[in-house]
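Session log. Operator J.P. requested a structure for one protein chain; no other inputs attached. Running the standard single-chain path with token output.
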Amino acid sequence: MQDEPVVYAYVATMTKPVAENTPAFGPGEDGLKLYPTPQYIALLSQLGEHGTMERRLPAILAILLASFLWGTTGTAQALAPLGTSSLSVGGWRLLVGGGALWMWVLLRQEGTPLRKNELVPLLLGALMVALYQVTFFSGVRLAGVALGTITAIGSAPLWAGALAYLFRGERPGRLWYGAVLLGITGLLFLGGISPSRGTSLLGLTLALLAGLAYAFYSLFSQKLLETHASSFVMALLFGGGGLLLLPLTLSQPSSWILQPRGLLVLLHLGLLTTAVAYLFFAYGLQRLSLSTAVTLTLAEPLVASTLGILLLRERPDIYQLIGMVLLLLSLFLAGRQGVKEG
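Structure written below.
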């Protein structure tokens, strides 16, 4: 069997670089300087040309998997016992999901000390997690399920692009603009939106705030993920958000969780659509820009619509089918943008 070729990273020399125009990496032993070998330089060049897809594709797939799990939320809630409060579901979901994340962190010993300058992003991130639950469910109740959901989810990529530019100096690529435009258009077709005089301005405002809260806690998560394990960051944010919402959660009727069907729904929402889904999301958020990561979550309404057709026997019209196709195109462009970031 032929031996694998060995590529040495550096070579020591007292005179000149092994390859032209390569900087020294500091003095080595006996005053020798260390330079990259030609083989190492060639390897780095190959990684720069061909490594982008390999490094970015898992991140893109992780966010799409998270979106798939989030897309099951509506179907799961539809299977909950009659009379279940959405605010109660949101609060208990955070408590179960945050608790599961903390158990994972403790078992794997992934907690690390927080620095003083990380306390503000942590507190604001937990606040945004709690705020999202309240504004989203309230906005949906006042503006209607279709318009409220589309406003919240459709505005999140726009908010994320603005926040990434303001706080991180990220300029979204041209593919991102196309992805957002197609995504919002697809959402409008999917929801069959036609504004009427009865539309609640307060409901729309709350839905927009939900999209802003989502973008903000993604921003704060990305900051904390630079120095901490993803499970630890998600446990802090969602555990903290659940505790902040605890008074509101306990004020809602909670007898539904004592019923077998209600308990199964809660476990699904807490363990899969919160704990597992946000671990996938955090993995992608560590490796993609904020704007691209949030735009990829437009897969959520696509999954929700597909499950509604397959499991709840909903019958889509031609406009909803067009919306689903436009969302697929939006995800394709967002994925291409993610691959280009590198």
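Operator note: The two ends are 36 Å apart (CA to CA).
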